[in-house]
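Structure ticket #2291
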Amino acid sequence: MLSTTRVEDPRSTETEASWIQRAADAAIEHARESSATTIVCASGISPSGPIHLGNLREVMTAHLVAEEIKARGIAAEHIHSWDDYDRFRKVPAGLPEQWDQHIGKPLAEVPDPYGQRDSYASHFIAEFTTALQRLGVEMREIRQSQQYPAGIYNASIRRAMDARGEIFDILERFQTEGRHERPVAERRAAYFPFKPYCEICGKDFTEVAGWDGGAVTYRCRCGHEGQMSLVDGVRVAGKLVWKVDWPMRWAFEGVDFEPAGEDHHAPSSSFASGRVLAPEIFGASAPNSIVYSFVGLAGGRSKMSGSAGGAATPDTALDILEPSMVRWLYARRLPSQSFTIDMSPPAVLRLYDEWDRFAARAEDDTASAVERHLYEVCVRTSAGPVERSARPVSFRLLSSAADITDANPQQVERLVRQHLVSDDAELPDDAVLLDELEPRLANAVNFARALPPEDRTIIRSEFNLEAWAALDDRTRDGVGMLVERMTDNWTLDGLTKCVYAVPKLLEGLSEDAEPTPELKKAQRSFFKALYQLLCSRDTGPRLPTLVLSLGPDRVRTLLTPPQ
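Resolution: structure written out below.
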């Protein structure tokens, strides 16, 4: 029976609960009904190409629910099926056309076009699991290319073959009317839920011709006719069709919870029919499930497809975002809510600002119970802490410093130290400080180097006489005022107050005056003048960050006209 030992429920004094907690409740209830001793949360992906950020949602959903169950002191396991025994359906964009000779083979038997792994499937699995390790996702991986050929499912396959008529009747109830030209009786007589891979050509262009209770006979498009035994212990080349394979594995693995995409949860979908097949054919109840929506890319397709090529993989996000932040992207929204990952420079800067504010609230106990719970699942798992910066310095500062110093670590460290000196805390040695900034510093360097040329910041080497001549007297007075006042508090906070105060003073307002549309217009005009003097552009990195990055001597040189 399922153990009832648990730690204190984080909702014990709260009426709110996160979607993760609610999904864990449902999975626990399902396991109690099935008398499970360990709650099994499952996910699965077919490695038909680059495994993208949309696929990550399935894995993260199962992982987060399993982690919540473990946090309550209940035994749980996250299993992940690699459907690498699925057929290779088409050649993704970017691969040689001659790879079409492998269409119809299992993904695990298609060569790796990059020559790095033992197969096409292994290449994309390794790429994805490396990212999962950084994200703190631990799971028991099951490769179907090992399970099926080893004969592990043979008894289940025989059960499905013996019940092929019943299976057809169930599936036919979920089919859209008018889609088939042949009458139902004819289709039922020809239906078999098992698809062999030909022992000669290795492809699944096969058709089952008969079943005698222990072996199938089949014909292949290549001309071969063969027989394949399904008795226990015999190696098998073939698999159940998807709509039968999925409920079979629910029963075989004892799955209690498995998320699925919108397409699988449609009324005529594989999950709908699987809920009937699992108990009626394989003697097990279907798992509890929640629907997850697609993850899109800003300015691109609303749905990502790995087999189509060109998909954004988790590495794309981890190049720029800390692992805990990537977890946050998936944990903070209901799985049923679709969302877009926007990796454009302004969006990334805003995202870091939002994450840092959220983390600060959670750490100083001003966040709600649900927010604190969400923060904990982002930064820590049952296996330990998730990789994140020990010293989360402003990403705007780090990316600006990396931009204007060409990612020189010594110069970046100097700028960060200048920013931190006002904290009155004892700072470590240079190398230790740089180490404390990781992985955020590496993210900032990647961010800066990926900027398009028109967004890179090229600091002037001498005073901009032409820009100065175009300024009116009041703006020139403001530049002088800024130079005079900015050295009083050479920190990011101090420079922010100074840079925003000068336009207010020029307008005859107090330094703490509330912004108005007129004041904002005046600030934009003044900031444009500063950017022209510093980098010959109308815009650039956030001014306080840029000024701090340059240092007082260089800023004074670029903002003070020669005598």
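Closing remark: The two ends are 86 Å apart (CA to CA).
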